[in-house]
């Protein structure tokens, strides 16, 4: 199968958004946990480090997934790869 310019653009955009979101995931998971003592301020009545570990990171993960699904649906429509029921 010969790849067209549209396929190349689709794949490049897919790799770029995946890299950006993986970077965000890394920051939420490791950087915030590593710097937890430096981030010791009150956030909604709890220390920020505790809040990020207990709730914030989970919320961030869900937001990453929702954004990725929305972005990929739009990208599929833009490049004509959408499933039949989505158009």
Explain what the structure shows.
This protein is mainly alpha-helical and 87 residues long. The protein has two helices and two strands. It has a domain at 41-79. It has helices at 5-34, 48-78, and strands spanning 42-43, 46-47. A two-stranded antiparallel ribbon has the order 1-2. Helix 1 (5-34) runs antiparallel to helix 2. It is elongated, with a radius of gyration of 18 Å.
**Would you count the extended β strands for me?**
2
Beta content: under 5%
Q: Which oligomerization state do the chains in this entry correspond to?
A: single chain
Major sheet = 2 strands, antiparallel
Indicate the mean pLDDT. 86
Low-confidence stretches are none
Round the Cα radius of gyration to an integer and report it.
18 Å
> What count of helical segments does DSSP give?
2
| Coarse structural class | mainly alpha
The SSE string, one letter per element, is HEEH
Arrangement of strands in the largest sheet: 1-2
Globally, the shape reads elongated
Distance between the termini: 25 Å
Helix content: over 70%
Keywords: Membrane, Transmembrane, Transmembrane helix
Pfam family, one: DUF4212
Protein name: Sodium symporter small subunit domain-containing protein
InterPro entries: Na_symporter_ssu (IPR019886)
């Amino acid at each position: 199968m010969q790849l067209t310019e549209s396929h190349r653009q689709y794949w490049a955009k897919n790799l770029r958004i995946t890299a950006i979101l993986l970077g965000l995931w890394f920051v939420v998971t490791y950087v915030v946990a590593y710097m937890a003592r430096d981030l010791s301020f009150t956030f909604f009545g709890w220390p920020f480090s505790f809040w990020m570990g207990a709730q914030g990171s989970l919320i961030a993960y869900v937001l990453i997934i929702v954004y990725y699904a929305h972005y990929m649906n739009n990208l599929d429509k833009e490049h004509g790869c959408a499933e039949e029921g989505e158009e």
